Amino acid sequence: MTASKEQREADKSRTGTRAKKSPKTGAKAKTKAPAKKTSKKITQETVKEAPAKTADKSPKTTPDAAPKAPAEIPGAWNPRIVVFACNWCSYAGADTAGVSRIQHQPHFRMIRVMCSGRIQAGFVLHAFEKGADGVLVSGCHFGDCHYIFGNHRAVEQFEKTMNVVKLLGIEEGRLRLEWISAAEGVRFAAVINEFTDQVRKLGPSPLTSRQEAA
To answer: CB neighbours of 96 closer than 8 A, spacing ≥ 6?
Structure first.
């Protein structure tokens, strides 16, 4: 009897020690589980960050391939340009260029008219007499005129004005006619930059130089 009791107590002590050791192994398993979760989080974050890193390497482009204004040389001569712009299209196109922050030459003065067909030879000649080196007339595209046939009349007025300009000894390159819509901010900037460079190559207006000499 005594031997059997001792064996039972010994068996109980052994099972107790095993039961005490088992929670430790469970605790070790629990500590390993968070490590697996953190590894999953790291892989997810790297996957999310990967497209952002590749996107940063892509070249940055301006919308609609907006032109850049050429760098100005300090002390260089800059022409004075007068722009007669239609209220409904070309003037709004200039606003679009400004809102979109499209770079263009700043050496011009904008005069808004209700229609490009309103621009007569007297307007252009008055601008040259007051010191303009170039005059740009701009209106709506054919078919988009707010007054239906205003831009057709603008072509007729422009041809008459060009004949008078030639008689005064002013180069043809100082007077230009362009069609620019309200949505063509990029085109407006491109026309301004190109026309400014063209007039800069021609130099000061001969009409202005004759007036200064007199």
So the answer is: 182, 183, 184, 185, 188
* pTM greater than 0.90: no
Please state the domain extents for the chain. Answer: 1-51, 80-213
| b/e 26-37 (16+ beta carbons within 10 angstroms → b) | eeeeeeeeeeee
In this predicted model, what pLDDT tens digit does every residue of 127-165 receive, in sequence order? 999 999 999 999 999 999 999 999 999 999 999 999 999
By DSSP bridging, strand 134-139 and strand 175-179 are parallel
Q: For the domain 80-213, what is the CATH code? A: 3.40.50
